[in-house]
Specification:
By secondary structure, the protein is of the alpha+beta class. It folds into two domains: 144 residues, Fructose-1,6-Bisphosphatase, subunit A, domain 1 (Fructose-1,6-Bisphosphatase, Chain A, domain 1, 2-Layer Sandwich); 109 residues, D-Maltodextrin-Binding Protein, domain 2, CATH 3.40.190. 29% of the residues lie in helices and 25% in strands. The protein is built from seven helices and 14 strands. The strands form three sheets. A seven-stranded mixed β-sheet has the order 3-4-5-6-7-8-9, with helices on both faces.
Length: 269
């Protein structure tokens, strides 16, 4: 009998690779329409969403599924997959290669495994984070099978800090680092996990933007700070998470919170 966590990883690899190969055919050729929340969607998003849900349910029929494009209510299943079929739809439609397929696995409402495949860059990130779940499971964060970890470098003007489109108010004050804006919530924080950036902020990410990256960042040694007062996890069955935002600051080590959190809070105010 195949080990559960081996099946989880192999399934995540297979389904994201399969869907990603098809999306590469549409990359840079799709027209997007604006949704009610201001984000964009294409026929590729909708196809990928349906295909990922189908493949994950076939592999794990007892697991629930919540996705950006369809079901926003958390099901009562002990295990639940959360899907973002294309994170970075604007980049995808305009031929910029930073976009990805994101799937996170929740146990009793809290993410414990995440997988993000970036087809155009040939990168696949994944990580395990048991936290307080009591689960016996693997540990670590990886890119293309190789371990990754956050940077131990000191803050300087040559280091990177990432903003999102809704966090440019941070420029009200001098930023003690080089600012980058990648246009993809998952890749924003994954650059911290891989050691390329010292921090990043996402002003209004939804659960499908963070479910996969939350365990990866922590497994890589990063510090994840939710900027709202209420606890993010566990999620609650029956609740609609379609409009719930999780303002987030991610840094490579806790000492940087004292530097970036005041700047970010002022900028988002």
């Amino acid at each position: 009998m195949i080990d559960f966590w081996t099946q989880v990883l192999e399934t995540a690899q297979t389904v994201t690779q399969q869907v990603g190969d098809r999306l590469l055919q549409d990359f840079g050729h799709m027209q997007a329409i604006e949704k009610a929340d201001g984000s964009l969607v294409t026929q590729s998003d909708q196809w990928a969403d349906g295909e990922l849900r189908r493949l994950l349910r076939a592999a794990f029929p007892d697991h629930g599924v919540l996705s950006e494009e369809t079901v926003h209510i958390l099901p009562p299943n002990e295990w639940c997959w959360i899907i973002d079929p294309i994170d970075g739809t604007t980049n995808f439609t305009r031929g910029l290669p930073i976009w990805g397929i994101s799937i996170g696995l929740l146990y009793r409402g809290t993410p414990v495994f995440g997988y993000v495949h970036v087809p155009s860059l040939g990168q696949s990130f994944y990580g395990y984070w048991a936290g307080n779940s009591g689960l016996e499971m693997p540990t670590g964060a990886f890119c293309n099978g190789e371990p990754i970890q956050v940077s131990g470098d000191a803050l300087s003007g040559t280091q990177f800090f990432n903003l999102c489109a809704r966090s440019i108010g941070v420029f009200k004050n001098p930023i003690p680092a080089k600012v980058r804006m990648l246009g993809v919530a998952t890749y924003n924080v994954l650059t911290v996990a891989m050691g390329a950036a010292l921090g990043g902020v996402e002003a209004t990410p939804k659960i499908w933007d963070i479910a996969a990256t939350w365990p990866i960042v922590q497994a890589a040694g990063g510090t994840w700070k939710f900027l709202s007062e209420e606890p993010a996890f566990p999620l609650h069955p029956g609740e609609n998470y379609g409009s719930h935002a999780y303002p987030t600051l991610v840094v490579s080590h806790p000492d940087l919170l004292a530097v970036f959190e005041p700047l970010v809070r002022q900028g988002l105010a």
